[in-house]
């Protein structure tokens, strides 16, 4: 078992690092305008002299009495050599694809769901894929596709690929209890059905929150900082603030698609502060 695994309630949770995403700092946005966005970018690391968003891409292995499951699935080979390493990490944990009974999806972006698919077929041949209802409804709607800017339409193609590979093994889920000890917490905005999964613990829960934060060191202190990938920026900011507030108040550990390992959240001034748990 990996040294970074931790136990929460009925599950042993292991982050699987799928890859490393990097983009120019101007993917950050701010509702207060360009000056505020520039201040946010000033908090980014420099690469070749330019502020750069440089973050991990993660998914999660959960092992419990009912077997092994994943939260999200990485990119698979679709995004090139910097990505798709979750499959190897899963093998390193001694888990074969046909041992995965379920995959819980936080949202239907490629870095979270394309790893479900291998050459058009199901990479996890026995898995049931659990996707928030609101996410499935949006990303299967022709009308929603038509009103989404072309550069933001990737989720529609991802969804089609997942449905093609898994058919009726893709199951919609509603907010609330999903499985024993796991609750779906809607955190809409990044995508319409974007959802966190709260793993109940004895005294301490774990919120696997998908893409609440892309750049923790910038967005935790100022949750209004968004990314161009947020489909509804004001709603994403409200969900970001809500998730951070709840995690701080409840003492939850958090983990996500683009933060490293397990973290704790504390309120600090008007914003929040993350520290490794
Ligand atoms: Zn993501």
Automatic annotation (TrEMBL):
Keyword vocabulary terms for this entry: Hydrolase, Metal-binding, Zinc
Entry-linked InterPro entries: MBL_superfamily_lactonases, Metallo-B-lactamas, RibonucZ/Hydroxyglut_hydro
GO MF assignments: hydrolase activity; metal ion binding
Domain of life: Bacteria
Statement: the UniProt record of this protein carries the keyword Hydrolase: yes
Record's keyword annotation contains Zinc: yes
Sequence ranges assigned to domain Metallo-beta-lactamase in this UniProt record: 56-258
A Pfam family reported for this protein in Swiss-Prot or TrEMBL: Lactamase_B
Similarity field: Belongs to the metallo-beta-lactamase superfamily.
Protein name: Putative Zn-dependent hydrolase
Organism encoding this protein: Azorhizobium caulinodans (strain ATCC 43989 / DSM 5975 / JCM 20966 / LMG 6465 / NBRC 14845 / NCIMB 13405 / ORS 571)
């Amino acid at each position: 078992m990996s040294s970074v695994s931790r136990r929460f309630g009925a599950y042993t949770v292991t982050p699987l690092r799928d890859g490393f995403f990097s983009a120019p700092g101007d993917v950050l946005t701010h509702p207060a305008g360009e000056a505020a966005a520039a201040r946010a970018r000033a908090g980014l690391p420099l690469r070749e002299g330019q502020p750069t968003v440089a973050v991990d891409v993660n998914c999660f292995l959960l092992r419990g009495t009912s077997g092994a499951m994943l939260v999200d699935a990485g990119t698979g080979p679709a995004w090139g050599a910097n990505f798709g390493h979750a499959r190897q990490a899963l093998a390193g944990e001694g888990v074969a694809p046909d041992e995965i009974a379920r995959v819980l999806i936080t949202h239907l972006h490629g870095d979270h769901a394309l790893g479900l698919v291998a050459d058009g077929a199901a990479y996890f041949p026995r898995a049931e894929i659990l996707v928030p209802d609101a996410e499935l409804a949006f990303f299967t709607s022709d009308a929603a596709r038509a009103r989404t800017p072309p550069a933001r339409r990737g989720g529609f193609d991802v969804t089609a690929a997942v449905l093609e590979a898994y058919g009726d093994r893709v199951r919609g889920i509603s907010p609330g209890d999903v499985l024993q000890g796991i609750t779906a917490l809607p955190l809409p905005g990044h995508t319409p059905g974007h959802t966190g999964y709260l793993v109940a613990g004895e005294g301490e829960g774990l919120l696997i929150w998908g893409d609440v934060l892309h750049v923790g060191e910038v967005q935790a202190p100022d949750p209004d900082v968004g990314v161009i990938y947020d489909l509804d920026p004001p709603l994403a900011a409200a969900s970001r603030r809500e998730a951070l507030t709840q995690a701080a108040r409840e003492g939850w550990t958090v983990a996500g698609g683009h933060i490293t390992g397990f973290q704790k959240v504390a309120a600090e001034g008007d914003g929040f502060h993350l520290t490794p748990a």
